Amino acid sequence: MKITYLGHSAFLIEGDKIKALIDPFIKGNPDCTSEVEDLNDITHIFVTHGHSDHLGDTIEIAKNNNAQVICNFEIGLYLSQRGVKVHTMHIGGKYNFGFGSVKMTPALHGSGIDEEDGNVICGGNACGFLIQVDNKKIYHAGDTGLTMDMMLLKDENIDVAILPIGGNYTMDVNDAVKASEFINAKNIIPMHYNTFAVIKADVHDFAQQVKNSKVHILQHGEIFE
Ligand code: NI
Ligand code: MN
After folding, report:
1. 118 C-alpha vs ligand 2 centroid, how far in Å?
2. Could you read off the pLDDT of 97-145 as tens digits, one per residue?
3. Closest-CA residue to 175 (of 152, 138, 209)
4. Is the pTM of this model over 0.85?
């Protein structure tokens, strides 16, 4: 199992039977070094919520690769109306895919889909994902504030927890440290910071404060194995 950071909340996850993207915000992402055209043989795309820095280039990449998008029911409707193959789930639901199981976890956040004409389409509830790949468990929290629900994740024996730390829209460093204590994952990868001025965060301060998990600060394009 291999995780590549594409900047902001976007990750590429590769396993024996899967090559998946999570929240593929590529084109508008000021720090992303990848191009949409370089993302080939993608089998699945996970979308945590409808905001443009997460839904990103999902439609184009899904169509280019004939990939299946795993998302909530409302975003699934929006995408299938635009010709994208989807598998919809909802909060608390778990499903066994060919590559492993996926559980949709709660996130404390919005999910409106902002259209270019200024309209906002209902994107259901924001979520996170607990994804099993090659018998490793990855938790991508999506955009979320700190919740007591995260304590339940301790029982999941998570190998890698990917958490937002940038504040303003999500947990800041201090809340993400608390989340790390709740979740007790073996490894943590921080995300959703420094992309924009309003989510500036000291990632080294975060790494220093986390005691029970190993924190991996990934640069864009960097791989965690
Ligand atoms: Ni958001
Ligand atoms: Mn966001």
Report:
1. 18
2. 999 999 999 999 999 999 888 899 999 999 999 999 999 999 999 999 9
3. 209
4. yes
Among 54, 150, 56, 140, CA closest to 102? 140
Token pair of 46, please?
């996970």
Degrees, nearest 5: CA angle 20-48-74: 110
Distance 143 CA to ligand 2 centre (A): 6
Ligand 2 center to residue 169 CA distance, Å?
7
Distance 145 CA to ligand 2 centre (A): 11
Helix, strand, coil share (%) of the chain residues, nearest 5: 25, 30, 45
Query: Which residue in this structure is represented by tokens 């890698």?
Result: 160
Distance 182 CA to ligand 2 centre (A): 22
Contact 202, 166 (CB under 8 A): no
Distance of CA 58 from the midpoint of ligand 1 (Å): 15
